[in-house]
Automatic annotation (TrEMBL), chain A:
<comment type="similarity">
    <text>Belongs to the UbiH/COQ6 family.</text>
</comment>
<dbReference type="GO" id="GO:0006744">
    <property type="term" value="P:ubiquinone biosynthetic process"/>
</dbReference>
<comment type="pathway">
    <text>Cofactor biosynthesis; ubiquinone biosynthesis.</text>
</comment>
<dbReference type="GO" id="GO:0004497">
    <property type="term" value="F:monooxygenase activity"/>
</dbReference>
<dbReference type="InterPro" id="IPR036188">
    <property type="entry name" value="FAD/NAD-bd_sf"/>
</dbReference>
<dbReference type="InterPro" id="IPR010971">
    <property type="entry name" value="UbiH/COQ6"/>
</dbReference>
<dbReference type="Pfam" id="PF01494">
    <property type="entry name" value="FAD_binding_3"/>
</dbReference>
<keyword id="KW-0503">Monooxygenase</keyword>
<dbReference type="InterPro" id="IPR051205">
    <property type="entry name" value="UbiH/COQ6_monooxygenase"/>
</dbReference>
From TrEMBL, chain B:
<comment type="pathway">
    <text>Cofactor biosynthesis; ubiquinone biosynthesis.</text>
</comment>
<keyword id="KW-0808">Transferase</keyword>
<feature type="binding site">
    <location>
        <position position="39"/>
    </location>
    <ligand>
        <name>S-adenosyl-L-methionine</name>
    </ligand>
</feature>
<dbReference type="GO" id="GO:0032259">
    <property type="term" value="P:methylation"/>
</dbReference>
<feature type="binding site">
    <location>
        <position position="136"/>
    </location>
    <ligand>
        <name>S-adenosyl-L-methionine</name>
    </ligand>
</feature>
<dbReference type="GO" id="GO:0061542">
    <property type="term" value="F:3-demethylubiquinol 3-O-methyltransferase activity"/>
</dbReference>
<dbReference type="InterPro" id="IPR010233">
    <property type="entry name" value="UbiG_MeTrfase"/>
</dbReference>
<keyword id="KW-0489">Methyltransferase</keyword>
<comment type="similarity">
    <text>Belongs to the methyltransferase superfamily. UbiG/COQ3 family.</text>
</comment>
Length: 416, 247
């Protein structure tokens, strides 16, 4: 029998491990600018977009939308997003309202809601488009990394199926549990909220008029976020119901009628009759931050670097900020023929992102602690605080701009 | 033949350590790393214009098919990027150590550069010619500038280009060199930052003309100490870069 020779390694500039919302978008950003990129995910792309895989919807901040636009992903989802015209925050029984209206800072909506499934499909469509246009993109999924060796001059990855790749830079975009981060010996600081995010889509009688509601209940925030109308299901919203983790499994398993009653008691009647559409999902919530964002020839992005409470709808948006910054330093050095995985690129990226992320983690953590609480004193303090924010337009504008992702040094991709 | 193939393993390890320090952006050549993107950007854009490759800059290897000689290559900080941009690169240095360090680093990084330990006159003797010759931060180290430019000038093919960068001999650069502004002193090997050897733009253009070259644009490269950043300017009093062609 003739001897079979192993295929020569696939050589790329950047190897991205994890093709989720963040890793997939990074692949588009790099490949469209001529940086040769390999994107690996353990899941089949079709699994990632199946209705049972991820029932979440995401609030996409204005800056995040610009990243999707700049990477050519937005046109593939534009028809399926819901502008957020208005955000109303209520604080349980005191019924004090904090009212964010986009007309206070300009004419643009505060953000857009899109189902994660829709965002994933848009990313996949863009990646296929780039492949078809002959851009230097190798999308390998399903595939699993068996081992990555990171050396002075570059990294070499071996896949489970025996294929090998060489790259100047490895990007860990493999989510909260990031095996790539663990293999590199980078620890995480973690704080468990003992809260679970119960997520589902609901149908309702009355239109939401583009308004996002956030009720701060003692167990944690309860958010009703507007989705675009569906031709068959009519008016829809996405729910994120934060519950004590102890109680969450029982709620997730409640029979339909009992679950329905729990829903109604929390939502109230402003949307008319409500009904669940599709399955319920439970996400344990924690705060975590990687001890470092880099090692030799490796950087972390998105949830692999930082996981935060979904209270402010910022997790993916911060991940998009990471990759907009990373894409910029990588593309700039690639255009100069510099080493895209060299120490300079890595330092520039880490300096740019780490502080900004720490700030956001602290803000979302503080919000959750402040609001997931039933103590009378704290309650009064925060009622007064919210009322003050509402009455102080400058402060409110600043808050809103931050929520829209428009503060700090913006990467080119975010400036639109 | 690879420049390191004749070295012993111990020697190779020693050079690997030195390569690490050459290429460490926070290490002893930090000022040079800070400065590098600016000069590479200039070299890339001017050469793309000269060779009509501007529309290819967004692609993988815009300069494919062109031969480039990097004179005084040091650790390869210019040669490697030029090779990645598609040039077929030959890089030479008078320091044997530099050449070994550079060759080792290129091998580790998977970049193809033909490194040689020789002087430009040796190559010129062999009758070699190139589309592009770079003499960046070298003329201030050269003993006989007229002779040096004759040799490098001979190696630019008709229609080709030469780019030179160096430090001007002015009151300002004298003060900087004497009182040790870190960015001037640190990138020059110890004892070689002799202000008297700095070269005025007018002297450089004269030597270029004698070597059969046509000097063109001159730009200043200015350091902003507080922002710790570099910028292309019209101020030639310190670092400057000059573009020349061969008719
Ligand atoms: C309830 C809830 C609501 C949220 N709402 C919002 C919101 O409104 N707005 C917002 O901005 N953010 C929101 N977030 C946060 C957001 O969902 C995450 O920040 C985002 O999904 C992170 O994306 P990622 O690509 O970094 O990681 P992930 O989405 O976790 O993707 C990781 C990918 O890596 C792959 N993978 C894992 N291991 C490997 C391996 N070894 N090899 C190869 N591939 C691997 C996985 O298959 C997956 O595709 C919410 C989060 C929760 C829990």
């Amino acid at each position: 029998m003739p001897q079979t020779h192993p295929a020569p390694p696939l050589d790329v500039d950047v190897l991205i491990v994890g093709g989720g919302l963040v890793g997939g978008t990074l692949a588009a950003a790099l490949a469209q600018d001529g940086v040769s990129t390999a994107l690996i995910d353990t899941e089949d792309p079709a699994t990632l977009t199946a209705p049972a895989h991820d029932g979440r919807a995401s609030a996409i901040a204005l800056a995040g939308q610009k990243v999707f636009a700049g990477t050519g992903i937005w046109p593939h989802m534009a028809g399926h997003t819901q502008p957020i015209e208005d955000i109303r925050v209520s604080d349980g029984p005191s019924l004090l309202f904090l009212h964010y209206d986009h007309r206070q800072i300009g004419t643009e909506p505060l953000g857009h809601m899109a189902e994660n499934r829709i965002i994933r499909e848009a990313i996949h469509a863009r990646l296929k488009e780039l492949e078809a246009a002959g851009k230097p993109l190798a999308w390998l999924a399903p595939a699993r990394v068996a081992e990555i060796r990171r050396e002075a001059g570059g990294a070499r990855a071996r896949l489970d199926d025996g294929r090998t790749l060489t790259a100047r830079l490895v990007v860990a975009a493999d989510g909260r549990g990031s095996p790539t981060r663990t293999a590199a010996g980078i620890g995480v600081r973690k704080y468990d909220y003992h809260q679970t995010g119960i997520v589902l889509t609901i149908g309702h009688e009355k239109p939401h008029q583009g308004c996002a509601f956030e009720h701060f209940l003692p167990a944690g925030p309860f958010a009703v976020l507007p989705l675009p109308d569906d031709p068959t299901e009519g008016h829809r919203s996405s729910l994120v119901w934060t519950e004590r983790s102890r109680l969450a499994p029982a709620i997730l398993k409640l029979p339909d009628d009992a679950f329905q009653a729990e829903l109604e008691s929390r939502i109230g009647d402003f949307l008319g009759a409500v009904r669940p559409l599709g399955p319920r999902f439970g996400y344990p919530l924690s705060l975590q931050h990687a001890a470092a964002y880099h090692a030799r020839r490796l950087v972390l992005v998105g949830d692999a670097a930082h996981g935060m409470h979904p209270i402010a709808g910022q997790g993916m948006n911060m991940g998009l900020r990471d990759i907009a910054a990373l894409a910029q330093v990588v593309v700039d050095s690639h255009r100069l023929g510099l080493d895209v995985g060299g120490a300079q690129v890595i330092t520039d990226y880490v300096r740019w992102r780490r502080f900004d992320n720490m700030l956001m983690l602290a803000v979302t953590d503080g919000l959750n602690r402040l609001f997931s609480n039933d103590m009378a004193l704290l309650r009064t303090a925060r009622d007064l605080g919210m009322a003050a924010v509402d009455k102080w337009p400058d402060l409110k504008r600043l808050f809103m701009r931050h929520a829209m992702g428009q503060t700090g040094t913006l990467p080119r991709l975010m400036r639109g | 033949m690879s420049a390191i193939s004749t070295a012993s393993p111990e020697e190779t390890a020693k050079f690997a350590a030195m390569a690490d320090s050459w290429w460490d952006p926070e290490g002893k050549f930090k000022p040079l790393h800070k400065f590098n993107p600016l000069r590479i950007g200039y070299v890339r854009d001017r050469l793309a214009e000269h060779f009509g490759r501007t529309d290819r800059l967004e692609g993988e290897t815009p300069f494919e098919g062109l031969r480039l000689l990097d004179v005084g290559c040091g650790g390869g900080l210019i040669a490697e990027p030029m090779a990645r941009l598609g040039f077929d690169v030959t890089a030479i240095d008078a320091g044997e150590k530099n050449v070994k360090i550079a060759a080792l680093h290129a091998e580790q990084s998977g970049v193809k550069v033909d490194y040689r330990h020789c002087l430009p006159e040796d190559l010129a003797e062999e009758g070699k010619t190139y589309d592009v010759v770079l003499i960046l931060e070298v003329v201030e180290h050269v003993a006989d500038l007229a002779h040096f430019l004759q040799s490098v000038g001979r190696m630019v093919r008709p229609g080709g280009a030469l780019i030179a960068a160096t430090l001007n001999r002015t009151a300002k650069s004298l003060v900087m060199a004497k009182f040790g502004a870190e960015y001037v002193v640190r990138w020059l090997p110890r004892g070689t930052h002799d202000w008297r050897k700095f070269v005025k733009p007018s002297e450089l253009t004269d030597h270029m003309r004698h070597a059969g070259l046509t000097p063109g644009e001159v730009k200043g490269m200015t350091y902003h100490p507080f922002a710790d950043s570099w910028e292309m300017t019209g101020d030639l009093s310190m670092n400057y870069i000059m573009f020349a062609t061969k008719p």
